[in-house]
């Protein structure tokens, strides 16, 4: 008798990601020794293995919640069938009493799953961008550090289709454009470090997988605290949408994310390709050539230029880019536009000058 359908689903999702990581690792090894890279294989093909002593390490980021515990158990199970080492990281944000003890408990659970190495990392959460953004920044910084320290090929994150739907709605509320609607990528971070195997699975599947495997789960009270925007959206916003529009809202939003990501990627590529053609010999942006571009492409060129000048990508919003865009489309002799990172955009003699002040 095979595993429960929920367990089978999470294991298959993780197996596919591990195949990708292992194939990429083997290709890197082959290139480093000058051999031809092996052909890519699908998750349904026979298992392939890394050369002895060259097994890539895959870490799972685990909070102790159902999503990440299901992910950790699936990683532990699948890694034993492949030439992959599996470890775990839990991050203590220090935002609740006893958080250090909970982090130690999660680390013990990961060790019991025979993951190695296992780290419990305490971080200090700042205030910039609000509590949710600050906690996320601190968490990813800790995960990046752990991945570098251990030489990990990938870090698995337990975001589900429900999380994706919430991310799309939050992006829609910000009015930040199609990139915000594209939600979370299945692969992101430097060199594709972060992998999200569960984006096509719902939250209930992960919880069911934990239940049938008798995996202990910790439900973070912050996830039910109405002080947090995502919590309100989860417990009030999405249920209200489903009541008004019927079931299937989460699936539709997740599908919207993928379609938006495809469109945004295509537009980003277009903008990168035309960047040099809208500059003069000195590398300055020419307003007339920018004006001739489709608005979606032009704004991407302007955003790229602002980031290259020193504007932090996370603080550069659509409204900033729109103000710069008016220097091209609605020029009335207006003054410079101030952007995050002390960057200034100014029109001078038919050129757009973007630089730090």
Task: Give an account of the 3D structure.
The chain is 50% helix and 12% strand. The protein is globular, with a radius of gyration of 23 Å. The longest helix is centred in the first third of the chain and has 28 residues, at 5-32. The protein is built from twelve helices and ten strands. The strands form two sheets. A six-stranded mixed β-sheet has the order 3-2-1-4-6-5, with helices on both faces. The protein is of the alpha/beta class and 357 residues long.
Query: What is the 3D form?
Result: globular
| Number of helices, counting only DSSP H or I runs of 4 residues or more | 12
Sheet having the most strands: 6 strands, mixed
Write down the Rg. Answer: 23 Å
Poorly predicted parts: 41-52
Task: Classify the beta-strand content into a percent band.
Answer: 5-15%
Looking at how many chains there are and whether they match, the oligomeric state comes to: single chain
Question: Which percent range fits the helix content?
Answer: 40-55%
- Name the strands of the widest sheet in spatial order: 3-2-1-4-6-5
What string gives the helices and strands in order? HEHEHEHEHHEEHHHEHHHEEE
Task: Quickly describe the structure.
50% of the residues lie in helices and 12% in strands. With 357 residues, the protein is an alpha/beta fold.
